[in-house]
Amino acid sequence: MQAVSLPARAGAHWVQQGWQIFRTQPIAFFAWAMFVSMILMLASVTPPLGPIIFVVVMPLVTFISLAACRTAASGQKLQPAMWLAPLRQPLIVRRLLSMGGLYMVVCLLFGLLAFMPFMTEIADAVQAATASNNLMPLLDAARTPMLIFGVLYVLLAAMFWYAPALVGWRGTSLVQSLFFSGIACWRNKWAFLVYGLVWGSIFMGIDLATTLVVAIGLPESIAASAQVPFNVIAGAVLYCSFYPSYVSVFEQPGASEEADGAAPPPADQTPG
Fold this sequence. Notes:
Elements: H1 10-24, H2 26-44, H3 49-73, H4 92-115, H5 119-132, H6 136-161, H7 163-170, H8 174-187, H9 189-215, H10 220-250
Helix pairs in contact: 1-9, 1-10, 2-3, 2-10, 3-4, 3-7, 3-10, 4-6, 4-7, 5-6, 6-8, 7-8, 9-10
């Protein structure tokens, strides 16, 4: 299995194509993004069990999102029963939950590797911050381990990015899916850099717009409430953009052979 290597501009195309998929059935995708947001909120207020469960089920959520995008891209209308249909494959739920469990374990391991060498400095910084009522010593002490964890997490995210789709649609083993996903992300690292920058700009733009309307006099509570649907829409388009990323890397004709420098699929071949 070979992954097509795309130019950097493909990252922006994935976002555009995700928007096109979202537009085909906006209500269905908005409702799905709202549902995932509610699960995330519930997990955030029920530590430590809630976050653990959320991380473990994320491959399931990702695969459901991808399958819904494939259904919408084929021109079919998304019905409630269709959302769980991809999970009826033999052993797929067990394999995706195993993937989520492995993701959680590796993430915790990377956290220990990043922070353990600096625990003495962090403990001293906590005491200093408590005594002076100033968080700057703690932020300074945490900067280096956070940077290390960030680098390790990027590697982890690359290994798991395409893994749910490869397990669900290609039938690869867990180890194979992680390997192929990591290779595909490395081959398309510049496209993913652009992809991340575009999404960072979108979410920062939404926050900036909220700040501006508060500055001109709109009550902060109203502005924050108005921001919610925009965040949900952006999240829905984000989920939809996963699918063109997978298709352009693994399901184009060049994906079966070496194709460094291949161009992304033109708009008329893009789902949605």
